[in-house]
TrEMBL record:
MF (Gene Ontology): DNA-3-methyladenine glycosylase activity; metal ion binding
A single BP term in Gene Ontology: base-excision repair
Protein name: DNA-3-methyladenine glycosylase I
Keywords associated with the record: Metal-binding, Zinc
TM segment ranges: none
Pfam families: Adenine_glyco
Amino acid sequence: MGEDGPIIGEDGLARPPWAARDPLLREYYDTEWGMPVRDEAGLFERISLEAFQSGLSWATILRKRPAFRNAFTGFQPDEVAAFDERDVERLLGDAGIIRNRRKIDATIRNARATIELRADGGLVEFVWSFGPATTPMPRRVSEVPTTSDESIALAKALRSRGFGFVGPTTMFALMEAIGIIDTHLLGSHRRGTSGIWPG
């Protein structure tokens, strides 16, 4: 179907163009993208990485993911929430991550906001409550939306709880990545594998 539709790999499996060539992206697509994430640290990590990805390629973030995990203590919210100015300076000096002060500051603030959400059921329940009644059924990459009513509402709700770098497009990408919606192309070998949406 060309560069906009599924591409059949040498293994005979169909993937979207973005996951068809780079081995790192292919592994991520085949094993992780679109699968449900329902633990607090895992979801906090995804929100953090989506924020750092803003304006960059996801491949860049994936390559730096081990360094991010090391720099942000495994994305344990309690530990990140305790970061102070010395930690910010340490992070700004860490060439292994994206050294953007606004994004670093937002990650620390988001860790604190994650802790505060525990009193209201927690981050996982909060984010998953914005799941839609239906999911997209794209045949081509150009048919995949970049926002939805739910991602707009989630972004607004998270901002009201103190989160930053959680715009509607970023939250739509999060919802795709953690299985709240299924935007695997029809025909992809991963369509329906989340167990939430039918293939």
